[in-house]
Write a structure and sequence with these properties.
The structure is a homopentamer of 305-residue chains.
Chain A lengths: L13 H12 L8 E5 L2 H4 L14 H10 L4 E4 L1 H7 L9 E4 L20 H6 L4 E8 L4 H18 L3 E7 L2 H5 L6 H13 L4 E4 L20 H12 L3 E5 L6 H14 L3 E3 L2 H4 L3 H15 L14
Chain lengths: 305, 305, 305, 305, 305
């Protein structure tokens, strides 16, 4: 049994708790852990991500994979959700991503524009919404302002809010880049301070510390780093993202360290679907073998009956 | 019979489906293909486009042509729609273009300002609205924000939303320009991810690949390219635009390749009306000869009766 | 009889038609032509314009002149309209100018800020509103956005919308300046495409063509140019402005050419009131001698009774 | 008797007229002239203005002075009005200043941000509101937009609107600076054109004319200049501000010239309270000796009874 | 007994007075002084502030400390307040901080974006809200605009408004920096002029006066400086912040000088919790020994019964 906080101790309103319970205890391993399949790369990077496995260009392929692989949720932008999710409704929870951007223009003052609403998510039967916050961006004011509206709407509708807390922009580059322990730790904390229910972060790289603020310029191991990041997120559930496709063993090791630290789960896209369907499912199985070792109860012992 | 998806399989709400059905099965060839006549060049380029055929400066000339040529729709800005469409109402569907701009100021951070509303389109009896999205523009935030409002209004009114998905701006120029396979493919996907019902793209030029992202820097044929673009658009109907007047045979060849790829149709302006009326109609006939070979049913077999 | 379109063929809603009819057939020569007296120079240029004839600094002087000279309308900003128009109400129609600016700051990205509303115009008994659109300005987005609100309000209130279509800004300067045939023609068309009821343009200078786009770099006579501009405006009534005070004969020749081309009338300020009252009235008489030769009916023959 | 227009001839709505009547005929000399005490320097310049007379740092000191000196009004920002005016309510009229700024950041594109509303003024029992317009600032659009809202609210609530018409910003600096006859004259006219009820200007300096527009580069005396400025303001009541503390005799001479020109009164702060209380009151007496010579009736003869 | 004004003489509406009374007379020493524990450093500086005492990373640790140390209030951002305050509700008053930012991007045109509302504070049972105003920032317009909304909402809900009046940005740096007597004095006055109920300032450093405006370039002692700052704040209650951890004796000396000057209290975070819990509580005791010497009555003598 993990040291993750029970769902009933996070200060969640009823609707958020119901939907998170559905995601964590009615889908996937039903043990309080989560494995999400993000599919917003078509917008974020363009169709070039699909050349490795052209079948993955078709949203039906991805939704089939999510159902068969027993994912806890699939992440879609509004267009694909409206056109494809109906045929998979309730078979796998939908996380509607509310903002996004192409990677074409200059990213130094990154901002992810909102193009859908929490109300859209309600209408489509989603169980959570996603918002990308570019922590440290020079466009911080616009980012926080857009986020605030989403946070308020999410509360009104009882919709769990998953924050992609991504260090980004010229100032982050000048302070060691987006992957440092410094940047990831700060990003997790920012999401927590601003009221995210779930935060998605990249796995921190404590060995990259040129330009970071003290004391992040000292030596830390990766377990120490992810432990601290989970602590910074405190009562905000934490998901670790996969990023670009990397070696399987390294990825699985990160998964183990993340879960040891108290993460709730993983959100891996390209590492999953940039290979054949059979291989994808086999890899998912290996991930789930790990997650299965980190169950958590949805209620604090003694709080019911 | 083409491999285009039937109208009933695109996740469309009732009003959008009714209007798209009217456009595709009550006008033009009534076979599920479409040929549109865009007439926004007076704003986008100025009256200089009319010197080749001064009669085309008069909106009545264009509307007559649209009716006589059996087009599936004519595209007008609000001013001309209010002043001229009444006399042609219901004879040819109206696509009201909701944004537009002059080509005078610097285009590096292109944005097409909204100057009319979906409600205007409803009031004028239009069967669709058009929105130009400059994919990759540094003004992406403002573009997505304006688009979002249009998308939401279009849903509320059941009005099909045609997105002119045009790669544009300094960042696109730095990555090979607006005509590359990379740019067109990304644009089509972006429109689809963001919820367009129909997307209008330029025909891709895979041979222009200096500066594009991998794997678009490899060799692709034009059929391969347009196939991929249609796939990227998935359940978003795709129209191929004509651009500047070019040689007829080359244009018709592009039309064939587009329809082979699964496009729904064409949207050609200057190539049609920058010649005499008789020649225009003769050219339209040749286009329709092609379109007639790509019929599609409006319903998936077995879904009714 | 001119070839101007009758008021009933312009696609106007009832209120707009009533007010334009009042301006064109109840005031001035009552023959469908119009002569307007603009008095916004105190804001646009400052009081320096009044030193040539200090009496003109007093709005009462101008309003007296408008009534005695039988103008079809006087153009005022909100402040002067509120303070002075009551004593002249219904004696001369009021065109309330809704935006304006000082000429002090840098004009390269010109924008004319809105400072009054169509509702203000209704309250003050105005018969039209005026909006300055700086065609080609780098601030095009803000301009179109402000314009859109005015256009929508004008429709709601049945208030005719007169657009000052002025090419302006750094990009226009780089393409030959604000007086070229290219710029004026594009400006007239832009106003028409965006839904102006009346457009005010400067008389085009086809001989200034360094930097303009093709084919405006060819040779055109002034009559050819103004003919084309009126054609570009199509069903938008066209007024030709006077600009800085110039020689009377040259001005009157321009008036004749404009009316020959199908313009509805003239809007001349400084050329009228930057001289003594007696001289002003004498000059107005000469203008009206011209206008009297270009009557037009308010109804298309056979449409009534 | 002065040649100032009577209050009933200014086109004022009832509430504005009632409040201006209270200020001009129920307070001060009750003769249609006005002497205002502005106290916004703590925000505009910071507490450094109070070192010359530390007692003036306390708002109570200023309010006592306003009552004892029989001022026609005291000008406060929202914070001090809320905290101090209650104890002096109705003893001296309150002009609530609705915008203001610190003088710390760069002033080249000056804008005075609104931080209170006309509704705040109504709630606090104010008899007028004040708005600083930086005439000629590159931030003209934002300035006019903010002003417009205030103007509309002032009309809705019948609250007189006093415009601080201050030439400011880099473009004014390039054209001779903020004190030239050119700049002050333009500022007065701008306020009038945009609908101010009262305008506050600096006394013009016609001798500073390097960089100004023609014909302001010619020779004018100070009486000529202030005469012209009052004429430019026309039916907008004009107040002359004091600016930095200067010699008493020079100040009083300016007061005389202003009143001769037709100004309604003066608005002097630092010249009054940057000296001891006794001296302040003695100086006020000297000002009032001047004002007493310029009475005006509130009604045009023959309009009542 | 101190010379601080009684709560009933500050012009406060009922709700604000009730809540400030609760903070000042129902918590802490219950003698009209205040000691606040700010805990927004996780957002403002990131988790690096917690490495000195990792336990402080956990909000529960801080809330326990606030209760045990008998603080008058704890300051939290919305995320931590929603997730942790319920278990401590009414045991220590909550000041909900409504804006905040990371310290990653360039700070030259500092602005602290609003991400929560006064309504959030009401919902969470807070007794005050906090707003950071960056006095002198080039982003002054946006700052004042955001502040204005908060001020109006605070009035509507009767919620005391605590303004973090922080000189910040490139212009302040050019005028001696954020710690000068000049900057702190101006900041206190600005908060007061704009309607803050409570203002939080840094202790002024009169010895740093290179670049400041006259007369701040003269010699002042620290007591003189804090006296003036409290005078500039006038009826706005003043709290002195602690800033970075410094020597205890120096801090306590500042506390004494502040209270002597008429400050209401202190708001110290890192100086308190960047040490062990035992040491923290011992240090708090020493602070309270000082505060206990500066009681003030909540009512002006004779105003009740």
């Amino acid at each position: 049994m993990t040291h993750r906080a029970a769902l009933d101790s996070l200060g969640l309103d009823t609707g958020k708790r119901a939907r998170l319970h559905r995601i964590l205890y009615r889908h996937g391993l039903c043990n309080g852990t989560a494995l999400f399949l993000p599919y917003d790369q078509g917008l974020e990077h363009g169709p070039r991500d699909f050349f490795a496995n052209p079948a993955a260009s078709d949203p039906r392929y991805i939704l089939d994979l999510a159902v068969e692989g027993a994912f806890n949720g699939v992440v879609l932008q509004i267009g694909l959700a409206e056109k494809y999710y109906a045929d998979y409704a309730d078979e796998v929870p939908l996380v509607l991503k509310l903002n996004g951007k192409t990677d074409i223009p200059y990213d130094g003052d990154a901002l992810s524009p909102v193009h859908a609403s929490v109300a859209d998510a309600v209408r489509l039967g989603a169980d959570a919404v996603g918002y990308t916050m570019y922590v440290g961006t020079p466009a911080q004011e616009a980012d926080f302002a857009a986020y605030r509206t989403i946070r308020e709407d999410a509360r009104r509708y009882g919709m769990p809010l998953v924050v992609w807390a991504y260090p980004r922009g010229s100032a982050i580059e000048a302070k060691g880049g987006k992957e440092t322990f410094y940047a990831v730790d700060y990003a997790a904390r920012t999401a927590s301070e601003l009221g995210a229910d779930v935060v998605k972060v990249n796995f921190p790289h404590p060995e990259k510390h040129s330009g970071v603020k003290h004391p992040y310029d000292e030596e830390f191991g990766s377990q120490q780093a992810i432990d601290a990041v989970v602590r910074s997120a405190n009562r905000t559930l934490l998901l670790v993202s996969g990023g670009e496709k990397a070696g399987d063993e390294a990825m699985l090791e990160k998964a183990r360290e993340s879960m040891d630290a108290g993460a709730t789960g993983l959100i891996w896209g390209r590492n999953v679907w940039q290979r054949s369907r059979t291989e994808s499912l086999r890899f998912v199985e290996r991930i789930q073998e790990i997650l299965t070792k980190y169950p958590s109860a949805s209620h604090t012992p003694g709080t019911r009956g």
